[in-house]
Amino acid sequence: MFIDKIAGVAFAVCALTAFSVQAQEVNIYNSRHYNTDRVIYETFTKSTGIKVNIIEGNHDELIQRMKSEGASSPADLFITVDAGRLAAAAKEGLLAPVSSPQLDSVKVPANLRDPNGAWWGLSSRARVVVYARDRVKPEQIKDYEDLAKPDWKHRVLTRSGTHPYSLALTASMIEALGEEKAEEWVKGLVANLARPPQGGDTDQIKAVAVGEGDVAIANTYYVGKMITSTKQEDREVASKVGVIFPNQGNRGTHVNLSGAGVVKTSKNQENARKLLEYLLSPEAQRQFADGNMEYPVNPAVQPHPELVKLGSFKAAEVNAASFAAHTPQALRIMDRAGWK
Ligand SMILES: [Fe+2]
Which residues pair with 78 in a beta bridge? Predict the structure, then answer.
């Protein structure tokens, strides 16, 4: 009995020590790689005392890692920049539904979060058409569909088809048009490419500016970052291009999001929820808006003025998880069409 008691006390002390160490930290499995985010985490640590540990990786690696680590995974919060990957993590059962009065009070639009709270959007970005001001009139392109028309032969620039941004766009086309028409669109787009896909979105914008192509597909924040860049050459590139928000006369422009979900096996669920709440707070949302030129998901926070200048637009209202469900078909049809 006495020994039992000692053992019990010893166990309690151990458990308490372990708890108090863990209670002061939160581990992020992060595939959102923007230096400006560091400021957000540092501010969170300063105000809460909770240390933020960041484990970097790409989306799929991190999902794979959580799956193989199982219950022993140190992951507390999964952060990524593609709705498809958030939906995939939720589908794998890796994320825990989370809600709180504070999260609810933010009023994140329904299409930018999981209906059950398994993931929450942090910021959104529109996938737009960037055009050469001196060679293209903005009214020449109204919809994504137009990019596949023969008038744009050898004039279209895009990054790789295997990149999540391209996959999500094609998945959204499948959602809107059905698989058959979406495949025709992909084929037409590939036939119109000015060069084989290479580089990131910034490279496509630069290629428009130097005349390698006339229109490019890119996320809004890349344009915003060039407009506000400290480098003169970036600002010059930005001055040569304009932005078209496609599909304004119908379903709206495709938006993707960066978002976060609390990991089901997290040992620091409360800290993870607190961090999530902080990421949706006006203060952190201001950082997403100004640091990386994204659209805040918190409706109380305005985008950066330079982004506002690009114009207001109607975003497609479809829930990210619903177009993300078409990702496997998107990959198949893009592969068949040769969007490498
Ligand atoms: Fe990006």
Answer: 29, 261
- The band of 22, judged by pLDDT with boundaries at 50, 70 and 90, is very low
Cβ atoms within 10 Å of 154's Cβ, excluding its own: 12
User: Cα(218) to centroid of ligand 1, in Å?
Assistant: 9
Task: List pLDDT tens digits, range 227-282.
Answer: 999 999 999 999 999 999 999 999 999 999 999 999 999 999 999 999 999 999 99
In angstroms, the Cα distances linking 115 to 75, 97, 288 are: 22, 9, 23
pTM of this structure = 0.89
Cα 193 to Cα 57, 222, 238, 340, distances in angstroms: 30, 20, 21, 11
The SS3 of residue 295 is strand
Gyration radius from the chain CA atoms? 22
- Counting every residue written for the chain, the total comes to 340
User: What's 135's DSSP letter?
Assistant: T
Residue 143 alpha carbon to ligand 1 centre in Å: 22
- Dist. CA 274 → ligand 1 center (Å): 26
DSSP character for 160? -
Q: Are strands 120-132 and 215-219 parallel, antiparallel or unpaired?
A: antiparallel
Task: List binding-site positions for Fe cation.
Answer: 33, 221-222
Cα of 281 vs centre of ligand 1, distance in Å, is 22
Domains in the chain: ranges and CATH: 2-124+257-303 (3.40.190.10), 125-254+313-337 (3.40.190.10)
What is the predicted pLDDT for the residue at 329?
Answer: 96
